Amino acid sequence: MKTLFLTLISAALLGGNGDVADKARELEKHYPVQPNQRIEITGFNGSDITFRSWEKNEVSIKLSVRIESSDEEFEQRYIEEISIEESQSSAGLSIAFREPRSSSRNGGWFFGLFRSSYVRKEIIGEIFVPQSNPLTTDMKYGTLSLENMKGTLNLLGGNNDLVLKNCTALEDVRNDYGKTVVENSGGDLKLNSKSGKVTVEEFNGPVWIDADYSTVKVMKVKKEATINSKSATITISDIGGDLTVDADYSTVTVENVAGFFKVKNQSGKIRVKQIDGLFVDAMYTSVDAAEISGKGGKEITVRGQSGSLKLENAVGNLRIENPYSKIELKNIKGSVDLSTKSSRVTADGIQGDWNSNTEYSSLMIRDLTAQSIRMTNKSNPIDLQLKNTPSTIDIKNEYGSVSVNMPPGFSGDVMLEATYGNVDTNLPVRSKSLGGGAYATGKVGSGSGSITIETKSAGIKLIQR
Question: With 0-12 CB in 10 A as exposed, 13-18 as middle and 19+ as buried, what is 12?
Fold first, then answer.
């Protein structure tokens, strides 16, 4: 019995690799159409099919189909049954490529274990469509090159090498795992891609892109743009309207946005310059923003944590909520409202009122021009250099020193109190040491200004230069 079983196995293995058959067939179709007819083309898939546009009012299809299979019966049936089917009316033309499904031969589970079988298909050809007609196709694994298309375009395939030039009515474009290039076109673009490459340049209309794990470049869009992605590299420039980007784990580079820029990111990088306004929601992200014009009059908002922020040459009131971060501000024309914790804050050339609520943070402020300054902090120094004489200074810093340097001219009430520390001031007020602490109080001139500085276990220095 054992000898018979081994003999059957040997016979199955030796007989499993027979000669492979080879069949081929040519298919050619031509369909005249009117310019207003919608065209739908489905079922055409193949890396050697090219899809192009032309000026003729005709759809032309030429295919060369070849199949190699270990199953001669299926091979013959496939060649006989493949077809191009059409359905036409005054409203449109539908064209579909039909092919039979493979079927396994009988023989039971035992012989199925040893059968060596495969099917390899090759479809080569060209499809031409008229430039004036609306078009929908689900072609995959091919090359689509469409130029000067005037009708609406809906391209619903994937894995394509797709180039669209001078197409004026783009709508829905899907191309996962492919390369998509859109140049000098227009419409209302909704583009979906995954693990691909997307380039949109010179587009007349709004752009919406969803492209995870992709490289995305968007340039010269006349209206608003929206980009959704993750784990991507995104480069955007010259947007004529508002810009919205939601892209975690991504590097986002933006330049020259006429409208408001809103960005959400986590564990990524954001680089932006030459925009009208800015809203950032970015955890664990480095943010570098410059040249914010503020023409729209909207507040600049940055929310984040455990990242870094560098903001310079901006116009607009600024609100920052960004604990555990390094924060650098330079040349800001607008008020600052800052909340952070365990951070390092440096600012230079701020022209606007300052309000900060910080903990365990160091603050070094240079050339601040403000009428009102309000600061609370813990356990790190505050170093403040003023370019003007404000009307109100209110600083409380537990366990951290305070140093204020300002020009002459203050007039109003002064109260400086260090519970355990020294007080040093050249203002004409009464100073006194008390136990381990010190205070200085009094009124300077007849004005209504107010300076209040309080510390614990740290010194106070207020100098009028």
Answer: middle
Which position has the token pair 């040249």? 291
- 3-state secondary structure at position 135: strand
| pLDDT tens readout for residues 267-323 | 999 999 999 999 999 999 999 999 999 988 999 999 999 999 999 999 999 999 999
314-347 per-position pLDDT tens digit: 999 999 999 999 999 999 999 999 999 999 999 9
DSSP secondary-structure letter at 113? T
Distance between CA atoms of residues 331 and 328, nearest Å: 10
Predicted pLDDT of residue 13: 38
In the chain, how many H helices and how many E strands? 3, 40
pLDDT at 433 over 50: yes
Phi, psi of 12 (to 5 degrees): -65, -40
Two structure tokens written together for 337: 């409202």
Q: Sign of dihedral through CA atoms 193, 199, 205, 208?
A: positive
> For 125-169, what is each residue's pLDDT tens digit?
999 999 999 999 999 999 999 999 999 999 999 999 999 999 999
Report yes or no: 402 and 393 within 8 Å, Cβ to Cβ.
no
Strand boundaries in 44-91, DSSP class E: 48-54, 58-69, 83-88
Task: Give the C-alpha separation, 152 to 167, whole Å.
Answer: 9
Asked if residues 279 and 257 have their Cβ atoms less than 8 Å apart, the reply is no
Query: Bridge-partner residues for 28, per DSSP?
Result: 62
Q: Which residues contact 64 (CB under 8 A, 6 or more apart)?
A: 24, 25, 26, 27, 123, 124, 125
195-222: average pLDDT: 99
**H-helix or E-strand spanning residue 228:** strand 225-230
Residue with tokens 């049936």: 77
Cα 143 to Cα 125: distance, rounded to the nearest angstrom? 11
189: number of Cβ within 10 Å:
24
Single pTM value for the model: 0.89
CB 13: neighbour CB atoms within 10 A? 12
Collect all residues with Cβ–Cβ distance below 8 Å to 326 and sequence separation of at least 6: 308, 309, 343, 344
Q: What angle do CA 90, 94, 98 make, to 5 degrees?
A: 155
Long-range contacts of 170-177 (CB under 8 A, 24+ apart): 170/205
